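Protein in question reproduced for absentees:

***
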Amino acid sequence: MPDICKHGNQSLGALLGEATGYMFLKTFEIARGTRQALLVGTPGKISPDDILYLVRRDPRKYSRVKELLILSEELRRAKKAFEEDEYGVLK
């Protein structure tokens, strides 16, 4: 076995503890954000507007969410146009 496994390494243990704590906090933030989104919007549903409301103070997250919502809408329109064309509606 490697020496690190036999004797343990304090810095490795600290690093793992720090990483675990960080992931726990991030998971907690996501859960808290989801709960807030459920409370803000329509009961039982999370809408895109709820997500935008939650990230409104973080410009980086807000712009990314907005970009993804725009792309999602473009894909939805393209898919709809393709399905209509498939049935001969646009011909």
In short: The mean pLDDT is 74. Residues 27 and 45 are 20 Å apart (CA to CA). Residues 10-40 form the longest helix (31 residues).
